[in-house]
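WARN  no MSA supplied for this record, continuing single-sequence
INFO  ligand: magnesium ion
INFO  echoing inputs
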Amino acid sequence: MDEQERAERVARGRRQAEWLASRDVAAVAVTFVDTSGITRVKGVPVSVFDRVSGWGVGTTPVFDAFLLDDSIAATPAANPSGDLRLVPDLHRLVPLAAQPGWAWAPGDRWTQEGEPHPGCGRLLATRLVDRLAQAGVTAKAAFEVEWVLFRGSEDDPQPAAVAPAYGMGRVIEVSDYAVELLRTLGAQGVAVQQFHPEYSPGQLELSVAPESPVAAADTAVLVRSTIRAVAARRGLSVSFSPSVEAGGVGNGGHLHLSLHRGGRSLFSGGDRRFGLTEEAEAFIAGVLERLPALLAVGAPSVASYLRLLPSHWAGAFACWGLENREAAVRLVTGSVGEQARAANFEIKCIDQSANPYLLVAGVLAAGLAGLEEHASLPEPVDGDPAGLSEAERSERGITRLPEQLGDAVDAFAADKVLNDAFGPLLTETLLAVRRAEIDLFADASPEEIVAATRWRH
Ligand code: GLU
Ligand code: MG
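INFO  complex generated
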């Protein structure tokens, strides 16, 4: 970051601070997401926001080594010496409607020398979006958010809605909460597309409009903290954990992605299956091939594997299919007449213990590798792969995704494309954090893993 950019940021921050003060905002929460998927924050009073906009606020690099229980993995990132500057992105600055007096902005982490911090997931995702742009391609993305709403104390949580899954009865049970949430998100500029009750007791889901991948990751952070803030005002608790009840249907964090060249969708009007273009197919194939390794980023907690079960709509098999909710990769073409706008692919095997910036980066790196390799997709799969015999699955090349975090971590450690994209520091830190979380739960029962993860992300 050079002197001129710094000065421009400070000037812009000053104008924003005046605007915030006129809206009775006292402080800005600048967030980043750590390697274990937890959103961490530095709050700054509006009076210093101009300086913070240019120079950032101090943050220790040790956060990169944090585990989900706030203990610290033994890795070079855990060095208590040194400091980083967390710099808010003023383009995403927004007053928080459910936290009066607060505004929010996502932050990028820079070194004190003004260089991008090699461990910053948001800057990494930005670089991968730029790499895609160099190939003339833009991506649009959106994260789906699922959560379970509870009444009662966190020690004795009771699902806040017990009417049938997807039932109107559930909307009635959470009616005021849901309306306040939708209004709050609207006031914060979030383009909600859909809200519905999900399968498990107390489980709800919300989807938002697609946007640039880094913006989609920002929106995921904002939506989740808003869901939690609106619930907190009503004495309710929220779990985004992949598994809220061992063996039950958990919370996914599905990612939708589409590609465009010169304003035209690469997911429709092509000569490949279901109207895909050659480029879209190659990109999806690059992702599909690397799913086991990507799970170390996208299903990164020990609890992730309590969710990632066959016949739970979690996408436990490495395969793809048209509108197939049991395939890890679901192709969505949209209705005839709107395909150029709506077609995309959905990665289902991932959850919200993932750092959304690292996940976007990993998916773009995998897809770019597919593009470079001119990769092609195997036969699509129709129906639940769990319904096929093992012999049928192996004949059709359908494999079960890792059944435990350690296998995903090993696949990530061996994946040159992802390691090169993440760089040595981030690769080493990610592996150390994952292995330390595996050790943390080495002797834990599924119930203990669920209890230790339920309120963390
Ligand atoms: N809750 C499911 C999951 O764990 C997803 C249900 C759906 O398809 O939306 O991913
Ligand atoms: Mg869902």
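The longest helix spans residues 416-440.
INFO  checksum written, moving to next record
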